[in-house]
Amino acid sequence: MLLIWNVRKDDAPFTSSYEAILHRLVPEYAASKHRKFDMEPIRDFFQPRQMKKQVLSNSQSFDWEGFKGRALSSSFMPKQGLLHDEILSEMHDLFHRYEENGKVLFQYDTIMYYTL
Asked: Which residues of the chain have pLDDT under 50?
């Protein structure tokens, strides 16, 4: 059995700035539980076997359209209205501030919980 997901690293200037935009402009972001891990249900999932954990580095590269789609597809993002337009404008500025060869890079820790 295997559970696996990506957790965005926010220690690089680009992803740190991305995180700051979300905290400043998206009220629902702070309440989202996408980074809060309750280990008890994960351990229970693997019972009676002993759970193991491994973390690997991973990344995704996005052009503007891919970055915009990734950002706006999050469940906490407003779908329309002035706030949507403001977020999109700031994301566009962020993209152009950090893009290299027309792309930005999201870095992740890929976390795997498994049993043998």
From this structure: none
What's the CA gap between 26 and 104, in Å, rounded? 21
The answer, yes or no, to whether the previous bond of 48 is cis (omega within 30 of 0) is yes
Judge whether 17 and 83 are in contact, CB under 8 Å.
Answer: no
The count of other CB atoms within 10 Å of the CB of residue 71 is: 19
Please choose, from the candidates 65, 69, 68, 62, the residue with its C-alpha nearest in 3D space to the C-alpha of residue 101. Answer: 62
User: Which residues have C-beta within 8 Å of that of residue 92, sequence separation ≥ 6?
Assistant: 64, 68
Give CA–CA dist 88/95, Å, rounded: 10
Q: pTM (2 decimals)?
A: 0.79
CA 80 – CA 50 distance, rounded (Å): 46
Residue type for position 45: F
Residue 42 near residue 1, CB atoms below 8 Å:
no
